[in-house]
Amino acid sequence: MLTLTGITKSYGGRRVLDDVAFDVRPGRLTGFVGGNGAGKTTTMRIVLGVLGKDAGSVTLDGTEVTASDRRSFGYMPEERGLYPKMKVLEQVVYLARLHGFSKADATTRAEALLGQLGLGERLGDNIETLSLGNQQRAQIAAALVHEPRVLILDEPFSGLDPLAVDVVAGVLQERAAAGTAVLFSSHQLDVVERLCDDLVIIAGGTIRAAGARDQLRAQHSTRRYELVSAGDAGWLRHEAGVEVVDFDGGYALFDVDSDDTAQQILRRAVAQGDVASFAPQHPTLAQIFKEVIQ
After folding, report:
1. Domains of the chain
2. What's the pTM?
3. Which member of 2, 107, 142, 256 has the lowest number of beta carbons within 10 Å of its beta carbon?
4. Backbone angles phi, psi at 84, to 5 degrees
5. What is the mean pLDDT of the chain?
6. Dihedral of the CA atoms 20, 71, 166, 109 (nearest 10)?
7. Which candidate, 2, 124, 118, places its Cα nearest to that of 59?
């Protein structure tokens, strides 16, 4: 497990990271979200040893991360980092060989990974001739080809169309399932919410929320319910302890003051007619994000 503890970083008199702490667990996808300038890229670069920290520690399974450990990390920067004149396959094979793989093994790994990422027909094309989305896929292949123990991706879904997002997401999920610890940043909160097991929210250089996705959603939930019934749900407006948020015929979204009130509403709805659904509503990641950064 990769663990950040008390990471602090300042530039001049401005503190850009303040006591940053969270875990990236093997076999899990951890989404790292925050606005521009929140500290995501700085944090990632400290983990990778590209930037020094003023205080705190970065450990792997309880031991301070070393240069040798970092050779088993995979990293995809937000900015393009490949050689534009190199061919796609040649580029990824070259990077695999830097990690000690033989030419044959590197080629086999690169071809399989590029095919999985949808670039199987572009192996002989120069990087610079690819669309921005396909360059992004090639960069992801470059970060993955040596089968890293820890994978760190800065905006991996930037520039990808919805189908490409699904392809890349599938590859990342497969790597996580094989035991890789995956940390990635993204401004696409819907993708993060769908994909991640764990979430870290940063704002102003401080961690505002961190933990399992479902745990965070439960922590930030209100007593909000959705009712869909065959009859008119307008009667909810007159119920004690109920505040209707949205209403349309048999549909109602409402808050209650207690779990007992929710059960009373369910009983009355069932007594009045067919209930298609009655369920608590959990906040989206976008709603949690807005709440914790205020």
Report:
1. 2-217 (3.40.50.300), 220-293 (3.30.70)
2. 0.83
3. 107
4. -65, -30
5. 91
6. -170
7. 2
